[in-house]
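Reopening: Sigma-54-dependent Fis family transcriptional regulator still failing for me.
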Amino acid sequence: MDDRQHRLLGSSPLFLQVVHAARMVAPTDATVLVTGERGVGKELLAREIHLHSRRRNRPFRVVGCAGVSPEQFARELDEADATGTLFLDEVGELAPVHQAGLMHLLDALDGKARLIASSSLDLYRMMQEGGFREDLYFRLNVVPLELPPLRQRSDDIVNLLKQFSQQLARSYGRRPPRYSVTSRNILKAYPWPGNVRELKNFCQRMAILMTGRMVQPEDLPPEIRRAAAPKPEHSPFTLPPEGIDLAVLEGEMIRQALGMTGGNRSKAARLLGISRDTLLYRMQKHAIRA
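Support: Ran it again with your exact input. Result attached.
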């Protein structure tokens, strides 16, 4: 395994704070629970902990917890190296029967393999609602580390874009694409719901389709352009299907403005966004006296 392909990338303070905590806990054998949205790099953080631990030369085994049978799950745990690191990926996806089995197997592994678990689900809330075993939650949640979503690391987006583009283009034997200032700003404004994984997939697409070219806004995927486009301001008024009598509405707005200002015509005009002379003309038009 090439460790360079499994490096955590980022320099935002929020991200570096989590990485620092991970390296602090790495030399110990404490159980770690890594949480965060899908695609933020939970497995990469687990590998970072493993690489800075005394078990770095032992196996790092990933056991997926989503959609596995009890037999398959038990077999995966049985095959885990007792001297390495066991990473339980998406432990919140475990069915109750799996959770009971996991507790039993963790008792057998106690003091042997280093345990790291991850979840994109809120395990504490699941525990409160009866969807996750309380004893298992407290067994896993010894040192909690939460990775922030990419939208909270906007300063990292351009750097990740550059690093992924160069890395992927090199793997294809091609020149990396470049990005215009406008394109970079659009990419920074996009919320990246799939987080770092989505950004890397985007970079792969651009490395293939835009080799050595300057990426302009029109070259970006439609969903990114749409999400980053300024939203139109919505009117506070909605025209009813049956329509309105505009003259009646205008007269009513003038009466309300005069009532709110105690009959002060200058203040009422400011509330309505019109000049005092225009207000006087429309008051006369609607036979309004103040």
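Residues 1-5 have pLDDT under 50 and may be disordered. If you still see a failure, please send the error message rather than a screenshot.
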